[in-house]
Amino acid sequence: MDRTQRLFAVMDALRRHRHPVTAAQLAEEQGVSVRTLYRDVQTLIGLGAPIDGEAGVGYVLRAGFFLPPLMFTAEELEALVLGARWVGGQADEGLAGAARNALAKIATASPDDLRGRIDDLGLWPVVLRGGAAPVPVLGLVRQAMRQERALALRYADEGGRTSERDIWPVQIAYYEGKQIVAAWCCLRAAFRHFRTDRIAGLALTDRPYGRPRRTLGKEWYVAWERERRLRHGDEA
User: How far, in Å, are 45, 96, 100, 106 from residue 115 at the CA level?
Assistant: First the structure.
């Protein structure tokens, strides 16, 4: 790896770490000495990269910094295109449109026009059920998660009986042909999973989540993992 590639690799590593990372850890990831890592970071700072560092704490890249995708490897580009094409075929119209726009930005943001490579990459996701019908509530669920505001939900059970409750969405699972919203149910005081095809009504409220979504997400995962172990009979 030449020095230019190494500098980009250091930037990529800093992007992956949301919290300060030590020079020793970065050097180990890059396969270089700590002294070399120090020099690389100073070079990047000199070039304008907003890297904050403190002795004994580590380095962190300030939020909002972006470099054009000049250094995508072939596999990185293939992964981005395949993922974006899969999202573009799903029922979430907002995300589908955003995926198409993201591909266009990736293609045109580089001096080397990538549009030809993206158009002829040879990788296409297979959608087994044909075109997915739009599910408008997905955009509202994503908005609720971003803003951490409760949703007023009217939900139908298997027999068609409806009930009303507030929920705090924490995750959306995108299956082939269906979507599941994992949320804290204020009515049941527990995590529940709601099929989007059974949502009879949904409205965004001004009521905030009772706990941060990140905390709820961790709690949900613990509860989901416990249920999974019980279903498979491997509870310790």
Answer: 32, 18, 12, 8
Residue with tokens 């995750």: 171
Could you report the per-residue pLDDT of 14-32, keeping only the tens digit for each? 888 878 899 899 999 888 9
pLDDT tens string 172-216: 999 878 899 999 999 999 999 999 999 999 999 999 999 999 999
Tell me which amino acid residue 150 is. Answer: A
The owner of tokens 């020793």 is 24
CA distances from 200 to 95, 173, 196 (A): 22, 19, 9
DSSP letter for each residue of 153-184: EEEE-TTS-EEEEEEEEEEEEEETTEEEEEEE
Q: What are the start-end ranges of the H helices in 31-173?
A: 34-46, 74-88, 93-108, 115-119, 137-147
Q: Specify whether the CB–CB gap between 209 and 150 falls below 8 A.
A: yes
Closest C-alpha to 76, from 8, 25, 27, 2: 8
Dihedral of the alpha carbons of 148, 136, 86, 182, in degrees to the nearest 10: 40
Pairing of strands 149-156, 178-185: unpaired
| Model pTM above 0.70 | no
CB-count burial class (<10 Å; 0-12, 13-18, 19+) for 175: exposed
Amino acid at 78: E
